[in-house]
Amino acid sequence: MPVRHVSVDLFDVLWLAYFSVLVCIRHATVDLSNVYAVCLRLTVRGNHQKEEAACFLAALGKNMAGLRQETVNLYQDVRERICRSIFTGDYQDGELILPERKLAEELNVSRVTVRKALDMLEKERIIARVQGSGTRVSLHYGPRDGSMDIITVAAPAQNEFFARMIDAVQTRADLQDSLVLFQQKPAFASLENCLYRIYKKGLRNLILWKEDMEISGEMLRRLKGLGMNIVLFDAIDGEGYVDAVCLDNEGAVKALLSHIKGKGCQNTAYVGWDNLQIGSLKVRENTFRKLVPAGQVIHIPYRYHSRVEGIPKSLLQKETEKIKTCDSVIYAVGELGIACEGISREQGISRMAGMIGMMSGARELGIYVVEQDFQVMADQIFKCLKAQNTKESGWKAKNYRIGGIAKEV
């Protein structure tokens, strides 16, 4: 009878569809369009019956798409958890990770899911499987073939030079149709967690301006080994794992001293922040001390750096009084130069002054400036990222010193 006839055929279709669900869940690789075709070929009793079967399979397809996405998400989650363990140091480079069975038990997933995650990590050159030995962390620190479609900049937006830096990066990115994403330097979270979150989102090109925030060379090494391409901006050393691009700080101080001495000055002082953990500040002060051993050095507390209310005037008056008899002064950064020379002018003191970094007011105060060439620095940053993204480039981590631009004001 027709009703019974249809019911039998639909039962066959439903059974085959159910079986295909089980296969897809286990392997997450079956093409559902093939399942549809097989099922429809089996339903040969009339167009009405085929339409019923097709409707059922269409609904099944929607459910299966969701199931397959959940499966993909599951082994991607396992992959991410292993990567985080490597980043935090729970797994060291070269260390054996747990066998598949134990990983599956610990993460409460199937061994098939663990195997899929390990397959991904092996392709990314994060682990290596050795027959008879097990699976080891095997980080790759060299260049990899990758894309520069998206560039992430992690930087301090409150820094007085941020706008010029990001403008130079954006100009360079536009030349090759790259999208620039900005991540503010975290105020409370650790820099390490901030950078790992960028990595977790699948972003692989990072320009990091860490300023006064600390991140160990070991953390940079792990990030690089996990596949992140990194260039440090305004940092003197990438510690052998990543590229670093900064102003030629030694050359900048020499240029300022040369200009001042050319004006006949003999008694030059130096004013800088007291935070010498920042590499560029340390190089500038050490260069001055080396070239002017008898020169007076004044430190301003770094806690006033980039504060909205500025440096207390009473503090500046007290410190500038110490160098009242000097005929010239070099300022480590523009922020200090503008603030201190403003106080000196109010006191009727006029002398030769030079500073590193152009800021508004330098011209009015007659300060000689050596500033960063942000566009050349951005060009070098993109060259570094391109080399890191090209497997055959032979890239090796390097520190780059970019000459400053001297400006008579």
3D structure, described in words:
This protein has 409 residues and is of the alpha/beta class. The chain folds into three domains: 2-137, Arc Repressor Mutant, subunit A (Orthogonal Bundle), CATH 1.10.10.10; 150-247 and 377-401, 3-Layer(aba) Sandwich (Rossmann fold); 249-371, Response regulator (Rossmann fold). It is built from 14 helices and 14 strands. It has helices at 2-27, 32-42, 47-87, 100-107, 111-123, 162-175, 191-200, 217-225, 249-262, 279-291, 313-321, 334-346, 362-365, 374-388; strands spanning 127-130, 134-137, 150-155, 179-184, 205-208, 229-233, 243-247, 268-273, 297-300, 328-331, 352-356, 368-371, 399-402, 405-407. It has a six-stranded parallel β-sheet with strand order 4-3-5-6-7-13, with helices on both faces. The chain has a six-stranded mixed β-sheet with strand order 9-8-10-11-12-14, with helices on both faces. A two-stranded antiparallel sheet has the order 1-2. Strand 11, helix 13 (362-365) and strand 12 form a beta-alpha-beta unit.
Topology:
Elements: H1 2-27, H2 32-42, H3 47-87, H4 100-107, H5 111-123, E1 127-130, E2 134-137, E3 150-155, H6 162-175, E4 179-184, H7 191-200, E5 205-208, H8 217-225, E6 229-233, E7 243-247, H9 249-262, E8 268-273, H10 279-291, E9 297-300, H11 313-321, E10 328-331, H12 334-346, E11 352-356, H13 362-365, E12 368-371, H14 374-388, E13 399-402, E14 405-407
Helix pairs in contact: 1-2, 1-3, 2-3, 3-5, 4-5, 6-14, 9-10, 11-12
